Amino acid sequence: MPPTIRFLDVFEAQTALMTLLADKGFPVPQIVPNLRGDVMSLETLRKNDNGDCSENIVRLLTYLPGTVYHNVPMTFPLAYDAGVFLGKVQEALKDFSHPSLHRPDYAWNLTGLTSLDKYLHCLHDDRPVKEKIRKIVQTFGEKVLSRIDELPQGVVHGDFTDMNVLVEEESTHPGKYRICGLLDFGDVVVNPHVFDLAIALMHVMSVVTDPIAFGGHFLAGFESIRALTPAEWDVLYYCVIARASQSYVLGHYTASIHPQNTEYLMVTAGSVWKFIDMWWGTPKEEIYKQWRDVKAFIQNQLA
């Protein structure tokens, strides 16, 4: 079966998910039916001037105004609001299911992190980096994948990052931003919910100067909607570093095969190694203590 045909079911699932969120009031792109009334179609399009053609899935989405979170000043209140937003998205999706979203072979699925080794060649001869990545992957398998059945699961966005969250400036408070949209549903997958949280945390923390504090505010916002289970809390540290390693390696790999997109692809991978060094070198309980302190501070402020 051609790859494009296989992806039709995944696109159908993405469409159903976006429609559900839109119906529940979330600011997400909406599907515009074509002239035949279909939400997507399979079209043969020319790839280049040589006349080569390929089959492509085509659909039209509405435009969402706003600025990506990455391009505005990072603040603690906005990190908290982003955590709240992710928590609400997870709650909205808790009863959603689709068979096509079980994607064990998808490269960005954290459940398949142990396959990351086959992409390490893109790091060339950087042996210390490769060894650290391998150790992180091994630890993730031992600490997380070995107990994955203990972790609540469901359909998750899978890429809740500072490049996929839209914000807008409040007209009455210049310099203050609020979340106004969520983009890119290409990574939706059935996963432990804590993986979704870890992805979001890593991408927020890797671009700020005080990552643990920012992560604490994001986590406090998330837990104001849904508290983590003891098992989720226990594995979160390892899930964050696993995503950082995945982002670093796959970012370099994708840039190596699509060099024309290197600038975009390396937005995260370019900064994440410093974060990996910091996180892997900081004891888990030290990070968790800071997060508990942030949560207590916020709760006192809201009391």
Automatic annotation (TrEMBL):
Keyword Cell membrane recorded: no
Keywords, alphabetical: Cytoplasm, Kinase, Transferase
Major enzyme class: transferase
Domain Aminoglycoside phosphotransferase: 11-218
Gene3D superfamilies: 3.90.1200.10
Enzyme Commission numbers on file: 2.7.1.81
Principal location: cytoplasm
Catalytic activity as recorded in UniProt: (5R)-5-hydroxy-L-lysine + GTP = (5R)-5-phosphooxy-L-lysine + GDP + H(+)
Coiled coil location: none
GO molecular-function term, one example from the UniProt record: hydroxylysine kinase activity
Subcellular location(s) of the protein: Cytoplasm
One term under GO cellular component: cytoplasm
UniProt superkingdom: Eukaryota
Record carries keyword Kinase: yes
Primary role: Catalyzes the GTP-dependent phosphorylation of 5-hydroxy-L-lysine.
Family: Belongs to the aminoglycoside phosphotransferase family.
Protein name, per record: Hydroxylysine kinase
Native source organism of the sequence: Branchiostoma lanceolatum (Common lancelet)
Lineage, broadest ranks: Eukaryota, Metazoa, Chordata, Cephalochordata, Leptocardii
Annotated gene: HYKK
